[in-house]
Here is the input.
Amino acid sequence: MTLEKQSDSTVNKTTIESVEARPTEDSVGLSSDFDPALKFPAYTRYATVAGCFVLQGLSCGVLNSWGVQRQYLAANVYNGDTAKIKTLSYVGTLMFFGLYLWAMIAGWLAEVWSYRKLCFLGVVAMALGPLIASFCSEPWQLCLTEGAIFGLGAGLVFGPSSSAPARWFTKRRGLATGIAVTGAGAGGLVIAPLTEFLIRSVGVEWNLRISAIYIMVLGSIACFFTRVPFQDKTRTLRNFDWRAFGDLRFATNAGMVTFVVAGYIIPYAFLPEFWVSKGLGAQTASVLISVSNGASLFGRILIGFTADHFGVLNSLILGLGITSLSCLVLWPFATNVGMGVVMSVIYGFGTGAYWALAPLVAAKLFGVDRLASISGIISTVAAVGSWLGSPIVNAMLDRPGHDNDFVAVSTYAGCFWLGAFVCAVVNRMLYSKKLFSKV
Here is the structure.
């Protein structure tokens, strides 16, 4: 199936539309009859961006901070118990797997039911996971609670909160989406050092209980403001055009996301352990993770602004290229605080660029009306990538005589990001072969 321009008489058909088939503020003067967002007060769209910012911060911030808790448990609670440490590595994998696994269902439910209600269900699950985990003592129990239950909640929240801002904006869609997904970087910037402080002050159990409280309170407030201007609730699974799977751009985009899912969590999960093995303290390692999340925050905003001026696909290639170099070139030399900061900043900036642009790329390739469901189905297909990350790295580090061989780990993560970069280049050329065009 090719994605071509459609006539006005076919715009409402239940097919995946190219964003080029739809007029924008740049080509026509929009009226409230055409753009439902204009029927709402201006503050409504900004409140939605703010709500999505908080939801992104809670879902991705906790996930990005998992490495801090993992390092503490491996070094102080399960020290010397190889089997339990290995099981512990699956917690982060399950969190990340859930973030993507439930994306397809979340996308459909958001479009045909309610963004607000779906996100609230996700917030409840995200709070319930760590709350139950606070009463658990075995790693397999943490896999079921912090891993599976929190992952379910994050999966219900992540997709809708990523795509909702794009439904409110046309001319500044990149900037609006960039600001919203910046919440993930801001969340990690705050939650990583907070986690380390709470673990040292009140212990792992109370850290989990406190996190459940702020997830529930802040998440509920954010859900109240999360909505979209229009929902076609007549859509069902039968309305989805499954021929999309035969489209090369769809397949290439799904491949890109799979590579990102496989590579993204590896540095956040294992950099703290890497730095501690090189003589840095656990507190310093948590600060460096926080620095990476802070850089991700700036990357999401700046790249969203850049995408509005130089093109979404062009900006995506830049972000993925930077991230690939950070893992392949910088990580092996990040053995002191100075190089650790450089690695954290560049990796955080590059990954932030990807998260800001991912929903915009889907909107550009497949249209904005079904952004939640299309992004969701791609994400669910890509969920398999989460099992190629932490579990494989853990097996690498378990090899006799290779406990601190992080060169293999950094190369492994970098190859995934390089694969994503290649997929982005292919999609860019499929969309337009003009090298210097804004796409």
Q: What stands out?
A: Residues 173-224 form the longest helix (52 residues). The mean pLDDT is 79. The chain has one domain: 40-228+243-431.
